[in-house]
User: What shape does this take?
Amino acid sequence: MRAAPDLRVALCAAACLGLALQWWVRGGWIFPLDDAYITLHNARVLIEGRDPNYGVPALVGASSLIHLALVTAFALVLPGGAAAYLVAGIGLVLFLAGLLTLARRLGLPWPEGTALALVGLASGAGQFLNGLETGLVMAAVTWTLVLALDPPSRRLALACGLLPFLRPELGLLALVLMARQARLRLAAGPNRTAALRAVAADAAVVLAAAAPWLAWSLAETGALLPRTMAAKHAFFGSSSDGLPASVLYAAAMIVGGIGPAAAALLFLGGGPGSALRWFAGLFILGFALTNWEVLAHNGHRYTYALLPVALFAAMRLGAAHGPRLLRLLILAQAAVALASPSPIAAQQARVVQYEALARWAQANLPRARLLIHDAGVIAAASELPLTDLVGLKSPDSIADHRRWTAPSGGAERFRALDAIARRSGATHAIILDDAPDRFWASLADDLRRGGWGVDPVETGTAPGPYILYRLTPPASAAAD
Assistant: This one.
């Protein structure tokens, strides 16, 4: 039993060494997702006190206040990319340490516990270094599960107060775990007054942990919680297939994201497992009611909040029924993790091309006003005035999509784009040519449908999927 802590330390130290070596070999890091550069832009705005691109507070377009705060803090002493990489590495190491701790606490034999932890790490390999909060989310959920195995505690209340500000949907996990803790306190003994005091103290700890983040969000954005999901819901619309079908699609996205481990969610058992079953159900229902399709975005990254819960269920299953079934699950999960092709290299190449295009526009079109839909790289690489067609960094766009895009299932998105383009005074646009899907490329078609001239500009930079267009307003807009 004494070898387990040493093994945990050794594995976490090896993970730290691997992260450092990877940074050194690459000479830096290019994050594969544009959203990572929104965080870097927001951190720069917090440090400099101004936003030259969007003219909005830094928290507009930020889903994770805690992640942004950590990146900003490290960016005070490190380059932005290094700060984001360090925060991502912390998430990876804490996730590994949490899984090893969970396995030990649940009495899993160390070979199976170690194998499952490493397979869990491999399953999230494409997410840990994406420059976003995904790794921290997995780590936070894992350590919250460790705390949930203990008797009711203020530490769990503190963790639950912070969870919604790491990812808003983790508020569901906080809700079900605090409801369980309140029930346990009330059932603990005959002294109901003392139990009620303990429940009230838990609530006070939750509110104390949440209060600074709520105040920050309210002061910066006028809302208590981020509006990023509302922006995406308005832009992408919601499914018209009905709730039962949407629930099935959302569940399928979970399986597509976290792999065979998702099957273990059906065997969470009692104790904290009952609360976690509620969390998984509410998680799926929430995305089914809004837009289940976003669960597939960016490598299914939103689904990874459920990976620690699924691994927790697998550990309990293995501890209760022996290692044979668990070994099969480990092999299946490992096979899927190793066989899944990683798009990271292609995504990074796309980021490099977008950055080069942004720098060309900064140097050659200093008076341009740009319409964009990927709001990160362009803001990190230029100081040009930008308008986000989706609405993450330009919240005025949300109202246009709520008026036309969402009610029509996207059929009248061209009206929303026309209104946004007119209001912004845009002279150019950068749009991704995402053939063969052509979802983003269709934005150029929508602008043309609204009467805009949309003509590619020859930049002389390396060709790539991001295309710079010159915009000519419709006759009515020109007259205005």
